[in-house]
Design brief:
With about 200 residues, the protein is mainly α. Helix content is about 55%, strand content about 0%. It has 2 domains: about 100 residues, Cytochrome Bc1 Complex, Chain D, domain 2 (Orthogonal Bundle), CATH 1.10.760; about 90 residues, Orthogonal Bundle (Cytochrome Bc1 Complex, Chain D, domain 2), CATH 1.10.760. Helix 1 packs antiparallel against helix 2, helix 2 packs across helix 5 and helix 6 packs across helix 10. The radius of gyration is 17 Å and the shape is globular. The protein starts with a helix and ends with a helix. The relative contact order is 0.15.
């Protein structure tokens, strides 16, 4: 993963001006830069790097802009994403969002069946005794997401757990009010259970 990040960083550093959307250069951007970590079709192979295939345009745009203005600063991503997103104008961000939204998401890899079964209950019903709402209300019955609420189906469990922990901090302002109030009521074990369930969708 370090080598992929290094390549992406070097490519980004070589740009002398912001990247503007012209013709089919969004695909070129994907092939030359984004694919190094996220894959050409948006189905990243690294469990620490998010899949982007099928992701909602609204969510994608919001996250890239948050990296660009440096309000999103989760530790494992900000070094590369601040540099790369800083070179993108709004038109290119929109084109990249359209590109990844049009890609077919690869089905996730089922993990521990017992963890996933417990995670399914939390995802669909929440934990009423602690005021944890069901995840389906924002992320959909099948984890498909809704507009600014991201698609989670098939996402890497490792990445999901990491982001749940990030929401405990102020490193992700987008959706922070909603997510922080939820994740602070989840134990680490419960977060892993939900992530295991979503990865298998």
């Amino acid at each position: 993963m370090k080598s992929a990040r290094l390549i992406a960083g070097i490519l980004a550093a070589l740009w002398l001006a912001p990247v503007h959307a012209q013709g089919n250069d969004a695909k070129q951007m994907v092939v030359t830069v984004c694919s190094k970590c996220h894959g050409t079709d948006g189905n990243s192979s690294s469990p620490a790097i998010p899949k982007l295939a099928g992701q909602h345009k609204e969510y994608f745009v919001a996250q890239v802009k948050a990296f660009r203005d440096r309000s999103r600063k989760d530790p494992d991503a900000h070094t590369d994403m601040w540099t790369i997103s800083g070179r993108l104008d709004d038109a290119m961000v929109a084109k990249l969002a359209d590109y990844y939204a049009s890609q077919k998401p690869a089905r996730g890899t089922p993990g521990d069946a017992q963890l996933a079964a417990k995670g399914k209950v939390i995802y669909e019903r929440g934990i009423q005794s602690r005021g944890v709402p069901a995840c389906v209300f924002c992320h959909g019955q099948q984890g498909q997401g809704i507009a600014v609420f991201p698609r989670l189906a098939g996402q890497h469990a490792e990445y999901l757990v990491k982001q749940i922990k990030v929401f405990h901090t102020d490193d992700r302002p987008n959706l922070a009010v909603t997510m922080k109030s939820v994740v602070e009521r989840l134990s680490d074990e419960e977060a892993e259970q939900v992530a295991a369930y979503l990865q298998g969708l």
